[in-house]
Amino acid sequence: MSTAEDIGDDKVADLQRQMLALGAAARAAAAVLAKTPAEVKNLALGAAAAAMRDGAAEILAANATDMAAAAQRDLSAALLDRLLLTPDRIEAMAKGLDAIAMLNDPVGDTISEWQRPNGLAIARVRVPLGVIGIIYESRPNVTADAGALCLKSGNAAILRGGSESFHSSRAIHACLLAGLRAAGLPDGAIQLVPTRDRAAVGLMLTMHQHIDIIVPRGGRGLIERVQNESRIPVIAHLDGNCHVYVDGSANMEMAREISLNAKMRRTGICGASETLLVDSHCAASHLAPLVKDLLDAGCEVRGDEATQGVDQRVLVATDSDWRTEYLDSIIAVKVVDDVAAAITHIENYGSHHTECIIADDVEVAERFLAEVDSAIVLHNASTQFADGGEFGMGAEIGISTNRLHARGPVGVEQLTSYKYVVHGQGQIRP
Amino acid sequence: MSTAEDIGDDKVADLQRQMLALGAAARAAAAVLAKTPAEVKNLALGAAAAAMRDGAAEILAANATDMAAAAQRDLSAALLDRLLLTPDRIEAMAKGLDAIAMLNDPVGDTISEWQRPNGLAIARVRVPLGVIGIIYESRPNVTADAGALCLKSGNAAILRGGSESFHSSRAIHACLLAGLRAAGLPDGAIQLVPTRDRAAVGLMLTMHQHIDIIVPRGGRGLIERVQNESRIPVIAHLDGNCHVYVDGSANMEMAREISLNAKMRRTGICGASETLLVDSHCAASHLAPLVKDLLDAGCEVRGDEATQGVDQRVLVATDSDWRTEYLDSIIAVKVVDDVAAAITHIENYGSHHTECIIADDVEVAERFLAEVDSAIVLHNASTQFADGGEFGMGAEIGISTNRLHARGPVGVEQLTSYKYVVHGQGQIRP
């Protein structure tokens, strides 16, 4: 007797088997990768980059299939652009692989070492984390970036791309596989979930025997779902509600340049500022030009009463504006009493991502840097520097607002754990 | 209309309110602690130690109440001993607080710093984790140790002791409170769950808004429950199934001393060895004396066929013996082909806690240290050194077999997170 329900159950069981097989292969590959020297991993990355350049036509063809399917659906222009691959974008992906090959291999690095009075020599040595699950949305280039960062840091990767980019991701993954094979590394080192079934994501989030850490890359909906459902530790940030605070001691020109850059250089990145706080002590002189710069650059300004007073183009800010990550040409502006009020506002409304103070008064700046509880705090520099590359860490897999393990940009070093290696000469414990 | 069920619901709601109030107070205290200088925290620790010495009689009286209640129940002698406080044990607790006051304060330490080509100066600076929940069993001294370690590292603590030690923990907590008050720190910095209701533990494990990390201290049952139920990251180890591997190149005397010490110095600690692996290349010479030492010291030996052959007192080991953490005077002994077989055995049966190789051959030792995937790996030293104090870290809150955040002994440094502090001179991102 076979009913629709039986078939449903069979399908679930099939998917479960498939995912567990992926997990087991990843775990086995992780053991190999942990012992793989840097040269071999770099060889694989170089070969993958070559395969990507040689196979650009196949990748473009696969992407055309995805784009055609996307065109049939009601997808936004922004989403279509994220999905699109071009020869330039493929070359950029290949260059990305080459750049990751050039990074220092963190595995085996000694973080610190010391000797005990009894002669024991203790070292903390970096080791890979194990297996990393990456769940992402429409950008197919994440397949290359994330797979390569995991490989470089000695971790096996299980990649689950968005269904819109299914064919593109498969074509890119084929290049990574070619790289692994050229270096004699197991296919299990970088695997792509071979189904669009959304249930696969749910399964990944429970496979704690096989996956050590989950990295979601995408919109708020995805991150929130993963953070709520996962039984595996998640490295991510939900919001980047970043603040620029212009202190009474701020240099006016610097304040104007940084405020504009922090908001408008790119509005769609997590380090873009979303709220501008202006010290009441300089509001009379600084507020109007700061607001004018933003308005003139095409930014919508939503302000408190004081801000509404300086330009009639300013709209009314409501409480929800202080909480909103616009990721768009919109900013909330507020006058605060002083640095203490700025810190309190950020604590109440912020997302602990990235905040900046513009001030000439070093003491005030140090207080802000010490008391604001965010992954990144900057003095006299744009929040748009919140980026692993800008920090000199090379590529990043994302930015974390976690307090555990990795906070801020997550590069290859943050994708490692450590172990203690102890050398003795026969010591026993008394 | 009031039914038994309504009353039950009311009680649940009451407990929930009570726990959330604890959480809110802890969160508020954590913000204060993050800014509290080392001297003030040390003052609180010193005052708490003094209160403990002055109040020894009250603590002993409270402990007598717990002991009397315990005597009415069918508790093991080991458990009663863990519960018992004596003047010496109280003095040891007070000394523990003094020792923690002497440790370096990790908060504010610069982990690393560098300058970017654009002039940005970037520093990774240690900050507290936030709020730490500690769930423990019968030992009342954990109240003092854990509370003090959290305070030193700038974290607020929510302590949930075992119901057997309820009065003892309350009396100890009163001393910690006296210390906090003497230093002008909020009571919320170290709170003790004021009820024996087991439902409080379940609530703690879901309070992710208020608690950043859970540290369970106790038996396997507790750790397993916490790891399975918690929605908050857990730092812990479930098992310490530690191995000593005697390589063919091992010095016989060293092998005998370390094997005996690793097993028998103290059998109840997580770093005690549970399985002895002997290389077939030296089994003919080394196996019999190694086994005889253990048997003569009163250790039960469960061996494979080869081991059974060297002494008639050896019992038969079954597959489950290789997986068992005895925490007792029992050891499993096996002859393995070589170092590769030892590594495979440890991978298959071990718990990634602490393993040791005894070998004169440095190349073999380095292979073992590199390939064995445990928090601590030792060459020619006893596994009983797996301890924060022995590592020079001062007191530890436990040992972690997590791969994320903290692996191995967890001291004050491991109870911190970090943030990036960036100093600029007006840089904007091009």
Provide structural commentary.
The structure is a homodimer of 430-residue chains. Chain A is α/β, with parallel strands linked by helices and 430 residues long. Chain A has 15 helices and 16 strands. In chain A, strands 10-9-11-8-7-12-13 form a seven-stranded parallel sheet, sandwiched between helices. In chain A, strands 5-4-3-6 form a four-stranded parallel sheet. In chain A, strand 12, helix 15 and strand 13 form a beta-alpha-beta unit. Chains A and B meet through helix 10, helix 15, strand 13 and strand 16 of A and helix 1, helix 10, helix 15, strand 13 and strand 16 of B.
Concise synopsis of the structure shown:
The structure is a homodimer of 430-residue chains. Chain A is α/β, with parallel strands linked by helices and 430 residues long.
Q: Please, how many domains of chain A?
A: 2
Query: Low-confidence parts of chain A lasting 5 or more residues at pLDDT below 50?
Result: 1-5
CATH class categorisation of the largest domain in chain A: Alpha Beta
Compute the number of strand runs of chain A: 16
Largest interface (CB < 8 Å): A-B, 58 and 58 residues
- Work out the helix count of chain A: 15
Span between N and C termini of chain A?
A: 70 Å
Going by CATH, what is the homologous superfamily of the largest domain in chain A? Aldehyde Dehydrogenase, Chain A, domain 1
Structural class of the helices, strands and pairings of chain A? alpha/beta
- Strand residue percentage of chain A: 15-25%
Overall mean confidence score, pLDDT of chain A:
94
- What is the helix content of chain A? 40-55%
Strand order of the largest sheet of chain A: 10-9-11-8-7-12-13
CATH topology of the largest domain in chain A: Aldehyde Dehydrogenase, Chain A, domain 1
- Describe the largest sheet of chain A: 7 strands, parallel
Per CATH, the architecture of the largest domain in chain A is: 3-Layer(aba) Sandwich
Rg of chain A, please? 24 Å
Assembly state (oligomeric): homodimer
CA-based shape of chain A: globular
